[in-house]
Amino acid sequence: MHYAEQKLKEEKVFKDPVHRYVHVRDQVIWDLIGTKEFQRLRRIKQLGTSFLTFHGAEHSRFNHSLGVYEIIRRIVDDVFVDRPKWNKEDRLLSLCAGLLHDLGHGPFSHSFEKVFALDHEYFTQAIILGNTEVNTVLSRVEPNFPKRVAEVIGKTSENKIVISLISSQIDSDRMDYLQRDAYFTGVSYGHFDMERILRVMRPHEDQVVIKKTGMHAVEDYIMSRYQMYWQVYFHPVTRSAEVILTKILHRAKELYHDQYIFQQEPTHFTSIFEDTLTLEDYLKLDESIILYYFQMWQDEEDDILSDLCKRFVNRNLFKYVEFDPAKEYKKLAELSTLFIKAGLDPEYYLVVDSSSDLPYDFYRPGEEEERLPIQLLMGNGDIRELSRESEIVDAISGKRRTDHKLYYPEDLLIDDTTKKNIKKQIRTLLEL
Amino acid sequence: MLKDHAKLMQALAASGEITGRKKLQKMIYIAKKITFPFQERFQFHFYGPYSEELTLRMEELCNMGFVDEVKENKGGYYQYRYTLTETGKEFLSLNEIDMPCLEDCMTDMNEQSARFLELVSTILYFDSLDRKEVEEKVHTLKKKQNYTGEEIDQAYAYIEQLHQKAKPHA
Q: Which residue in A119, A356, A367 is closest to B21 by CB distance?
């Protein structure tokens, strides 16, 4: 039997707190899970620094990737099978792309990518197409299979239906992470009737659409998404931890380029700092490595690096005030000057964080020439955009909400042992 | 502070006004690919390279009152027009970022059609592939746009022209 069709002698199951069980019958999927590149995802947390706000949020990209795979498996095996406009040949492609969609994430993905101008999508492609165990498994299906999987994940495949299963406004990726993140953070948002949504999904021309009868389940999904963004993903304490993490990485990079002699040499960072990063180097990076450096850098002679690492490791985070850039940008310049006089480098200790700095998005309907919205399949076969039919979705998706916060180290500003008058002026400006 | 916002404002100031969200997305993407240090990350979507971060940042700039967005009803669809407000200009004068040659490039791109910029940005997105593969990508992923060989030639020539314009910056 050809490798693509080989089944395991007995079905393997992973116990999963969100989907109860993740079922694996395909040999290819089992082999992919066993590769070292996929196992690496166990050492990358799904929610980055959120564990400092929600202590349960220690789940990994490994858990999430299995969850995405399981949702796709249920769609293609239970819902799409035998439906017109669904090509059964796309089953394995869909399962592999779902399983591997986050393969290229690095440690603390978002901050890491931002500081070093990296792109996890690029590395996902590089792992799938490069000299890796994942590539070896996929190539056994057919020589061109790694490329087909990479194109689906990169959204450059002509197979739009498979792309929309993994990446669209209502996809298996979002459906898994909303429920999983809700479960592990312990919040009561993020729940919706996924079984119902899966049952009303239909392949239709270039994308997956939802039968009109399932609209209320989708409304619930959109509401969950909205609440999770503001309550979990945009949580100001998590953002404070992200700010510090970003600044540690910036500081280490700056010191390296300034020929600073590290007590703990940043060996794993060298190729990133020198812009010579290879796939092999990248795959050695995970959160255990990064946290090791942060632990060691607490004892560095550089005051800023040492202080920031202590803050991150011991969760002594920056405080924040709401900030309105339009009204307060002149105040920001004034604060910046005062910080310098107080001996605090504003580049590291006075930070504006905006909602656009975060990697999550909202549902936006009907923007011509942009992303495809969620489409409903009406009883008469017509297609209608969700917010045109749902007043609830219309009410929340048209609203623009943006947010800016100004982060600072309160403990250093209330310490009056030095620069007492300047710190007092800063506190007055910050209204502390 | 707000450097990434200031860069977008500078691009808008250099262009005068930009009509159409798709055009704005493609202009920033092309500028970034050519050489300018925009930080927004782009992914390939149904209409070519698209950045959610750029969309969000533009929303923030509108909410701050630094950018004016006018929604125009064009019959079957809406079009959005972006300009810098007076407050925006004042903010920018205090937070200008050195990007020589940006104005030349943005002005030039602004004179092109959104359709042509979609083609240019798609070609740039696949710049690691050889030309034959790129053309295949254009024909399969942009089937509905039905780009001709002549348009593809023009797009390649245009990319080269933009590189020349941006050279002092590179």
A: A367
Q: How far apart are CA A145 and CA A151, in angstroms?
A: 10
Which residue on chain A is closest to B3 by alpha carbon? A352
**A220 and A262 housed in the same domain:** no
Is residue A12 classed as helix, strand or coil in its secondary structure?
A: strand
Query: Domain span at residue A258?
Result: 238-357+403-430
By residue range, what is the domain housing residue B32?
A: 3-169
The DSSP bridge partners found for residue A16 are A20
In total, chain A counts a number of residues equal to 432
DSSP lists the bridge partners of residue A404 as: A354
B-chain residue closest to A372, CA distance: B46
pLDDT of residue A94: 97
Residues A195 and A49 in one domain: yes
User: Following DSSP, what letter does each residue of A91-114 receive, concatenated?
Assistant: HHHHHHHHHHTTTT--TTHHHHHH
Contact A158 B140 (CB under 8 A): yes
Residue A158's CATH number? 1.10.3210.10
Total number of domains constituting chain B: 1
- Interchain CB distance below 8 Å, B44 and A154: yes
Chain B residues lying within 8 Å of A144, measured CB to CB: none
For A401-411, what is each residue's pLDDT tens digit?
A: 788 999 999 99
Q: What are the residues whose beta carbons fall under 8 Å from the beta carbon of A112, sequence distance 6 or more?
A: A106, A118, A249, A290
Residue B72: the pLDDT is 82
Nearest CA in chain A to B57: A356
Domains identified in chain A, total number: 2
How far CA A318 is from CA of A231, A306, A311, A355, in Å, comes to: 19, 15, 8, 17
Q: Which residue of A has its CA nearest to B141?
A: A158
Eight-state DSSP code of residue B54: H
Same domain, A288 and A353: yes
Q: Are A345 and A395 in contact (CB under 8 A)?
A: no
Nearest-CA distance from A217 to chain B in Å? Answer: 25
Residue A405 near residue A236 (C-beta atoms within 8 A): yes
Q: Are B78 and A404 within 8 A, CB to CB?
A: no
Cβ–Cβ gap A156/B126 under 8 Å:
yes
pLDDT digits (tens, 9 = 90+) for A385-425: 888 889 888 887 766 678 899 999 999 999 989 999 999 99
Strand partners for A384? A376
Q: Which of residues 400-419 of A touch B (CB under 8 A)?
A: 400, 402, 404
Q: How far is A370 from chain B (nearest CA, A)?
A: 7
Q: Does A114 touch chain B (CB under 8 A)?
A: yes
The nearest alpha carbon in chain A to B61 belongs to A326
Whole-complex ipTM? 0.87
User: Is A25 found in the same domain as A95?
Assistant: yes
Pairing type for strands A207-211 and A375-377 reads: parallel
Residue among A369, A375, A402, A408 with most chain B CBs within 10 A, to mutate = A369
What pLDDT does residue A95 have? 98
Residues B24 and B18: their CA atoms lie apart, in Å, by 6
Question: For chain B, what is the mean pLDDT?
Answer: 91
In angstroms, how far is the first alpha carbon of chain A from the final one? 71
